[in-house]
């Protein structure tokens, strides 16, 4: 019997496709992150032993080593990183770096910058670094060169921003735009909001407002400040389905229509930043007014993408470009510097030292710049949504601590609130102090006092006040234990020349990479956030129950609370 040659060809094609799939499957696994329980490593055990035998007081460390500052600090062209006031000696640092190596951090970094699918649970790359790369070698993911596409969106953002800033983009009555309202939440809010506030000395002249909370009070207070004819709303949402953002977006649209705008005017006053073109169109936003980004940009790392449009409008495209350049500078440092001199790696490993060996539960970030007051809020999402995990990459419950509670506030306000606990409380709070040599105002008396406090605090935390010093000063012996400050409280200091778009880019990138390194050591998936999903789903169910005044299946507490609400809401 004669066989059909086409059939043979099909069979062969199927066979080759199968082989290709098997090959692709294994290639994918080849690039996946290592899955090592760090506590099983001899390097971990060595740190445990080292911790048990330690007897370090920072007072002695500095007495014993006249060059401790030089030995435990790194100077870059525009900032200084001092980690000498940490509870470490040279051996500790060596052991910590050994642990990083044993956890195959080097291959993790390669996979990260190589655009590999390291967000395995969501099957995506983690590739925000590509958004700030001027080197096309670091913009390839899934075999695709993204450089041109990234630049195209960036150029579109810049052209649009220039038009708005220079008053060429007009509102529906022909007036220039004066106010921008960014509507987004989480990563679609915190980064641009923090950076707009941090860089307000670089303002383009446009007023930028941020709405995130579903609580109407927030958007209401913004409506009171703006004129619909001169306002541009940016709906920033990767998914374009987030309840808070979409509710606020529809409220803004209705407000706009009630204030005199027409349906046709919406296209001119509403811009979208999203990966979901169909949803954007349904909302009534023109296709050309959608700014695109990619699923490999995680929400909490998205300020470098089109999500940063509100920021670009607020500070101008040139300053935004500087922000990208600062971040890229740290990307290069992180990628290329030996771990022993690598700032994000050192910060991360010190964090591991305190979290896993000293059992510190929190970490404070204390910027001595009022404009950086929102920096700890921003970092809370970046860090806690990433490393607040208790299941490892093998799907096993971890038997060690992961991400700490991160918090903080601008100095000196924090000094008059919670510093007492850091100085004399029973909890160890490792802290990062962030300061700037120059300020943007001319009131040097203020800045000198601010900086004097900045230096005084890390000194007081490290060295405290010994009992004999208190005895020399006080005649009341009862007060001696109360006035004694143990010291030995660890701090890092990041001292930059100036708070500029470039240095802010550096600062944010340092913390992004620190978070990455810690996730690598803890063997967790840092780039998903399943923990926040359950609450969202339950809220939707409960919303229906509230609307229908019919409560479904819940525990007695939740039922009792909803019941109380329904009974009293109309009274
Ligand atoms: O908080 C959960 C989260 O998914 C964040 O990761 C994200 O930044 C935020 O919600 C907003 O999501 P979206 O940009 O899709 O509206």
Account of the protein in words:
GO terms for molecular function: carbohydrate derivative binding; glucose-6-phosphate isomerase activity; monosaccharide binding. Keywords: Cytoplasm, Gluconeogenesis, Glycolysis, Isomerase. Catalyzes the reversible isomerization of glucose-6-phosphate to fructose-6-phosphate. Pfam families: PGI. The protein is α/β, with parallel strands linked by helices. The chain folds into 3 domains: 39-114 and 322-528, 3-Layer(aba) Sandwich (Rossmann fold), CATH 3.40.50; 138-315, Rossmann fold, CATH 3.40.50; 531-569. The protein is 49% helix and 9% strand. The chain contains 23 helices and 13 strands. The protein has helices at 5-31, 42-52, 58-64, 68-71, 90-102, 105-113, 147-165, 190-198, 216-223, 243-258, 263-269, 277-283, 309-315, 317-336, 343-357, 375-387, 419-424, 444-463, 467-473, 480-483, 501-522, 533-548, 556-569, and strands at residues 73-75, 79-82, 140-141, 144-145, 179-183, 207-211, 231-236, 270-273, 290-291, 362-367, 405-407, 431-436, 491-496. Strands 1-2-13-12-10-11 form a 6-stranded mixed beta sheet, with helices on both faces. α5 crosses α15 (343-357), α15 (343-357) packs across α21 (501-522) and α16 (375-387) runs parallel beside α21. The protein is globular, with a radius of gyration of 27 Å. It starts with a helix and ends with a helix. The relative contact order is 0.12. The protein binds 6-O-phosphono-beta-D-fructofuranose (F6P). Residues 185-188, 237-239, 242, 245, 299-300, 385, 529, 532 line the site of 6-O-phosphono-beta-D-fructofuranose.
């Amino acid at each position: 019997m004669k066989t059909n040659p086409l059939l043979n060809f099909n069979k062969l094609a199927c066979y080759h496709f199968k082989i290709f799939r098997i090959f692709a499957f294994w290639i994918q696994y080849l690039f996946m992150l290592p899955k090592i329980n760090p506590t099983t490593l001899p390097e971990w055990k060595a740190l445990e032993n080292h911790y048990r035998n330690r007897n370090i007081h920072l007072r002695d460390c500095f007495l014993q080593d006249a060059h401790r500052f030089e030995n435990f600090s790194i100077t870059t062209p525009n900032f200084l990183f001092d980690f000498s006031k940490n509870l470490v000696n040279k051996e500790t640092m060596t052991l910590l770096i050994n642990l990083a190596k044993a956890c195959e951090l080097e291959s993790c970094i390669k996979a990260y910058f190589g655009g590999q699918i390291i967000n395995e649970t969501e099957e995506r790359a983690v590739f925000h670094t590509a958004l700030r790369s001027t080197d096309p070698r670091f913009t390839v993911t899934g075999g695709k060169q993204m450089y041109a596409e990234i630049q195209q969106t960036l150029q579109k953002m810049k052209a649009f921003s220039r038009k708005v800033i220079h008053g060429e983009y007009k509102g529906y009555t022909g007036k220039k735009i004066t106010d921008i309202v960014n509507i987004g939440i989480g990563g679609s809010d915190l980064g641009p909001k923090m950076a707009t506030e941090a860089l307000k000395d670089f303002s383009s002249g446009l007023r930028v407002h941020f709405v995130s909370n579903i609580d109407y009070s927030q958007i209401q207070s913004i409506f009171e400040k703006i004129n619909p004819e001169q306002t541009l709303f940016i709906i920033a949402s990767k998914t374009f389905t987030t309840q808070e953002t979409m509710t606020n977006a529809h409220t803004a649209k209705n407000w706009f229509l009630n204030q005199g705008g027409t349906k046709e005017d919406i296209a001119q006053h509403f811009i979208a930043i999203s990966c979901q073109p169909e949803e954007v169109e349904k909302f009534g936003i023109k296709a050309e007014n959608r700014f695109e980004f990619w699923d490999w940009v995680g929400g909490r790392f998205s300020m470098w993408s089109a999500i940063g449009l509100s920021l670009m409008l607020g500070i101008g495209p040139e300053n935004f470009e500087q922000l990208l350049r600062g971040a890229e500078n740290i990307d290069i440092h992180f990628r290329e510097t030996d771990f022993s001199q690598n700032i994000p790696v050192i910060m991360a490993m010190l964090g591991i030292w305190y979290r896993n060996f000293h059992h510190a539960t929190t970490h404070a970030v204390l910027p001595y710049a009022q404009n950086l007051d929102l920096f700890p809020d921003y970092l809370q999402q970046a860090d806690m949504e990433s490393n607040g995990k208790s299941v490892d990459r093998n799907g096993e419950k971890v038997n060690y601590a992961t991400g700490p509670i991160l918090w903080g506030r601008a100095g000196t306000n924090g000094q008059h609130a919670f510093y007492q606990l850091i100085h004399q409380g029973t909890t160890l709070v490792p802290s990062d102090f962030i300061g700037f040599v120059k300020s943007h105002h001319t009131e040097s008396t203020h800045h000198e006092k601010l900086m004097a406090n900045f230096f005084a605090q890390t000194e007081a935390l490290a060295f405290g006040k010994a009992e004999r010093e208190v005895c020399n000063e006080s005649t009341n012996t009862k007060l001696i234990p109360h006035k004694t400050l143990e010291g030995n409280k660890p701090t890092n200091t990041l001292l930059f020349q100036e708070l500029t778009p470039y240095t802010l880019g550096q600062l944010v990138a340092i913390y992004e990479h620190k978070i990455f390194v810690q996730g690598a050591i803890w063997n967790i998936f840092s780039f998903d956030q399943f923990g926040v999903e359950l609450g969202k789903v339950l809220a939707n169910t409960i919303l229906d129950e509230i609307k229908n005044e019919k409560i479904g299946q819940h525990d007695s507490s939740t039922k009792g609370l909803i019941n109380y609400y329904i009974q009293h809401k109309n009274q």
